[in-house]
Amino acid sequence: MAILFTFSLVIFVHELGHFIVAVKSGVTVKKFSLGFGPELIGFTRKGVRYRISAIPMGGYVEMKGQSIEEEDALEEGSFMSLPPLKRIPILFAGAGMNFLMGIIIFFFIFLSAGVYIQTNIAQVGGLMEGFPAQAAGFEEGDRILSSGGVEVSTWDDLSQEISIRGGIETEFILEREGESFSIISVPKLDTELDRGFMGIIAPGEYVGMGVFRSLK
Q1: What is the pLDDT of residue 214?
Q2: 140 has catalytic annotation
């Protein structure tokens, strides 16, 4: 049902694009249908028959004079009576509306989810599966006081110290629930980047974005 609703929404928006631009261009629209086949329900307004049809797979906008073979093809208000340059926007309006819908959906997802803001403190924000920090016993929320005998207070300090100790046994001094203790581990060496990794995720939080901040 959700898939059918989503598909129907995409088709509705697509056909709405054709409809709006056609009307703005002076083309007479005969039908606006969501679905194909026999009409299930509908109404007529300003000469346009709005309908929901029996087969919910697609939809269409029927304009006056869509084909040159039609009797009214060259009459006023017909699609084919327009110059080619005025027909093109009508043809591409559906795809344009779908593109616009995608932007709007992305905007509201971003608006509701927020953005992850990293904080520059030497703390475990999370652990990557299969990396040394997890295997050694690091836990989320641990403060890291030193790495290899070098005091670290910021995430930048910690990242720098770990990066130069790839493949080297390193003592980390941690603080957990007010207690300090040490852990011995070996940062994983990435031979391509020539730097060490512990698999520690930087601390931070998701911050909701206001409308005006999201527009920046």
Answers
A1: 47
A2: no
